[in-house]
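A favour, since you know our structure tokens better than I do. Could you add the entry underneath, on a fresh line?
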Amino acid sequence: MESKKTTTNSPKVFLHKEQGKNTVFQAQMKRVFAAFQKQPKTMLAVSVETGILRANICRYVAEWKKANKIKFVKIGICPISKHRAGFYTTNQELFPLIVELLKRAGE
């Protein structure tokens, strides 16, 4: 008798079409987080640098804002689009400096 070979143990075969998407988004989140870690950047700059869609980056930034993992640094001219845009950072060492600057600006 021949036994049927099951492919469910294969890493590339998913039982459900959305089963593998979570790992893709987690990998994207790590790359985006690292890009914002280097220096404050706009979402478009990170999109161009990483090749990840800006819509996904916007979603990640919104999640990180709620978790206090990313901070808005300033509004400036985006080096890519040449329009006003927000610069963000995930570098925890810069967070106290940003808070201090915002306090001074509010006085």
Residues 20 and 80 are 33 Å apart (CA to CA). The longest strand covers residues 71-77. Strands lie at 71-77, 84-89. The domain at 23-106 is CATH 1.10.10.10 (Arc Repressor Mutant, subunit A).
